[in-house]
Design brief:
alpha/beta; five-stranded mixed β-sheet
Length: 774
């Protein structure tokens, strides 16, 4: 038998699924990223073909939007007419509601369950006490040696199974044409998109787990196709789709576009009120007391608005990794995690060292951390080892019971008391940075040139030329108890890690005398001697902002203390608005964060729909309802358009991922989302399954996008981007970047430009590749 090379076909077939990110780095991404080269309409049609379900909003979502006035009737009627649909909108809505979904039994249910079982035990990352034997040989070889013990497969011998995955596929597919082989691969990869997406993640990231226990899609397909042939006597012809949806695609597209266009008009009208005031840019305003830089995250919009109302404070928006392409090494554990966008390669690693004069405290912190890790390990071993399990649980049961009752009935008090005994390492540590190209024998650190480049890039993208006495870089993080998807609420720009590490690092670099000197002499960027930079963290669940000011000079302590007082008031007012409560808002927010029975500690980026790139006065004092990403940009300081190009290549693409992650998790939570938290089971420490098995969930839980099973919170709209810049400049950027242009032409993103050279008139980019005034 001649072995074939299936590498190219498997790679092409795997484009139908996106990467599934692990729980500890749950990055929001477009589940149909492999289809971004197609139009949105064609991509959703292809997804429905191979995965089933629906990629467009269902009737109940349109009904809620219609009843709430979120879809303009005139806009909808016009779009329906242009599609040759001449009835009134209510007619088509009732038609969609009357359409009944026909269901069929999943013909490959048994196959899916068996394959999921094997993937679960092989990919385990330390949850199982007894691991699968032979994992170091790779998935296929380990399965081949153990398959004879699987009673669900039946009586077989190892000799019945080909020795290699390539040999297996060659024998099973020898009678099929090239196109048929490709279709077979697509069908079986799409059958378990969560698991195959996680295999793609492992291959790309090449983590320590992947290096130790390798797996690839060829091995997955070899095992699955053999099982299909063994169980059913065939490898094609069985439809894995469990539901056959209605075919109102034209009507759905019209309703969706009308919904999106209504939002765009509302956003445009809000901004219009400030357009006449843009001349204020040339006026000198009183120098601000503090400048605060937040992530572009939609949750920053509310907190920025409240901060600006409190005092003479300026706020800015910048991608939350603060321009540092880095990993972060956790202090005490040595665990390294990515802390920059997934699409960016990490050039650096940030670690921690003792602050001057605090070596003793740092050593004590590390010793306490080691002791805590030992106690956790000992407790785990005592609970799980057969000789000690029963006695340990009996003896410790009363203590654990008391703790559980305390945490359940009094979550706020537990949180506050436990917090008193926690030592934050930021109080005794300072960040240090070194290149990932550094060998172990080299001294840690990076060149002054690299330090200057990091700081200058931040200032350029922010459009800065003046500095307040106190400048705060505020990363953000979330806090919740018993939440497998907790990392999805952290900073997406930091690969689902907290942003505090990057914020502290940028502040430290900006404070360095050699950096200030180089910026002044080489780039004419003058940072006053009395300007001091500090890092901070915005807790998006409680709206508390913690300032990392342990190394602040005495000259700034009074200003820092005044800022802390104002931020405490901001926390109260922001929570009152966000949670719609008049009193006890902070207590309610802490309860949400600390209660391990709370399914919605916060809404995260739910309801995101817009992205505004421009100076703050475009959006200042406008309530954008936490629906818009906000990136600071001043076109006047960007003559060549390089800064704007960087924003469009990076943050705009990442926000499109976030937007589509929420969109698809809402329109079909079963297939693209995370399912209900109520029946989640964590598997292998890296993912969740619904109930006792099945496919790995790859999107957001139902409770993150819906108020109830059939009541939405997130409005599933594609991202609408508004940029204040000369239209010619934006057009030139698109011509230089075919990938960005493709996202627009294919209707994955809508782009509107406010042209300051034409009295800020607004134009929208059409999928025909030209602009139209709106």
């Amino acid at each position: 038998m001649i072995e074939q090379d299936f590498t190219g076909k498997i790679e092409e077939a795997s484009a139908i699924v996106g990467k599934t990110w692990p729980l500890y780095a749950f990055v929001t991404s477009n589940p149909l990223s492999g289809y971004e080269g197609l139009s949105f309409e064609d991509a959703t049609q292809q997804a429905n073909k191979f995965m089933g379900g629906s990629s467009l909003p269902e009737a109940y979502l349109f009904r809620q939007a219609w009843d709430c006035g979120k879809i303009d009737k005139a806009i909808l009627q016009d779009l329906l007419n242009k599609a040759g649909l001449c009835q009134q909108p209510e007619f088509y809505l009732k038609e969609m509601e009357a359409e009944r979904t026909s269901t069929t039994k999943n013909a490959t249910h048994q196959l899916d369950r068996i394959v999921s079982k094997w993937l679960g035990v092989f990919l385990d990352e330390g949850m199982a006490e007894w691991e699968m034997p032979g994992r170091s040989k790779g998935f296929y070889k380990a399965w081949r040696e153990l398959a004879k013990y699987d009673q669900e497969i039946g009586v077989i011998s190892t000799g019945q199974i080909p020795e290699t995955a390539t040999e297996m596929l060659s024998s099973l597919l020898s009678l099929f044409s090239e196109q048929e082989q490709l279709d077979i691969f697509k069908q079986h990869i799409a059958a378990l998109p969560g698991w195959t997406g996680y295999i793609k993640y492992r291959l790309v990231e090449n983590s320590a787990w992947q290096q130790k226990y390798p797996i690839n899609l060829e091995e997955y397909l070899a095992v699955r196709l053999w099982l299909a042939n063994h169980l059913y006597g065939e490898i094609v012809g069985r439809n894995p789709v469990s539901e056959i949806r209605s075919k109102f695609t034209e009507v759905q597209h019209a309703w969706l576009r009308a919904w999106e266009k209504t939002f765009q008009n509302q956003l445009r009208f809000k901004l219009q009120s400030n357009l006449t005031d843009l001349g204020l840019q040339s006026k000198k305003e009183p120098h601000s007391l503090v400048q605060m830089v937040f992530c572009i995250d939609t949750r920053s919009e509310l907190i920025r608005r409240h901060i600006e109302k409190t005092n003479n404070y300026e706020t800015f928006g910048y991608a939350g990794f603060f321009g540092i392409a880095t990993d972060y090494m956790e202090v005490g554990t040595g665990l390294v995690r990515k802390s920059c966008p997934p699409i960016v390669a990490s050039a650096y690693t940030i670690s921690e060292t003792a602050q001057p004069g605090k070596t003793k405290e740092f050593t004590q912190f590390l010793q306490k951390n080691e002791f805590s890790k030992f106690l956790a390990f000992l407790s785990s071993r005592m609970k799980n080892m057969l000789p000690s399990a029963f006695g340990y649980v009996e003896g410790a049961g009363l203590l654990y019971g008391f703790k559980m009752v305390w945490r359940t009935l009094f979550p706020v008090e537990y949180h506050l008391i436990a917090g008193r005994y926690e030592v934050q390492h930021e109080q005794i540590c300072e960040p240090q940075i070194h290149s990932n190209d550094t060998t172990p024998n080299q001294v840690a650190g990076i060149s002054t040139e690299d330090k200057v480049a990091i700081v200058k890039s931040a200032f350029d993208l922010l459009g800065w030329n003046t500095f307040a006495p106190l400048v705060v870089f505020a990363g953000h993080a979330s806090h919740s108890a018993n939440n497998p998807f907790g990392s999805s609420l952290d900073c997406g720009a930091c690969a689902a890690s907290p942003g505090r590490h990057n914020a502290r690092m940028l502040a430290k670099l900006a404070n360095l005398p050699e950096v200030k000197t180089a910026l002044r002499e080489e780039f004419n960027i003058n940072i006053p001697d009395n300007t001091f930079f500090i890092g901070a963290e915005h807790n998006t669940t409680t709206d508390e902002i913690i300032l990392f000011d342990a190394e602040a000079p005495g000259s700034h302590l009074k200003a820092i203390q005044a800022l802390k007082v104002d931020l405490a008031a901001v926390q109260q007012s922001a929570i009152s608005e966000r949670l719609a409560v008049k009193s006890h808002g902070i207590k309610k927010a802490i309860k949400n964060a600390s209660n391990w029975a709370e399914t919605r500690p916060e809404w995260g980026l739910a309801n995101n729909a817009g992205f505004v790139i421009g100076p703050r006065n475009i959006t200042k004092e406008i309530d954008l309802e936490s629906r818009c990403f906000l990136h600071s940009y001043d076109w006047r300081l960007d003559a060549e358009g390089k800064f704007l190009e960087g924003i469009m290549q990076g943050p705009m693409v990442v926000t499109q991922w976030i937007n589509n992650h929420y969109y698809f998790s809402t329109v079909d939570n079963d297939r693209f989302g995370g399912g209900s938290k109520i029946t989640h089971n964590v598997t292998g420490k890296f993912g969740v399954v619904q109930g006792n098995g099945g496919d790995l969930k790859r999107g957001l839980p139902l409770q993150s996008v819906n108020r109830a099973d059939k009541e939405m919170f997130h409005q599933p709209l594609r991202l609408s981007v508004i940029i204040e810049a000369p239209l010619k400049r934006v057009s030139e950027i698109l011509e230089r970047n075919s990938q960005l242009k493709s996202l627009l032409v294919n209707n994955w993103i809508y782009l509107m430009v406010m042209d300051p050279m034409e009295n800020n008139q607004m134009s929208i980019y059409k999928n025909t590749g030209n602009w139209s005034l709106i």
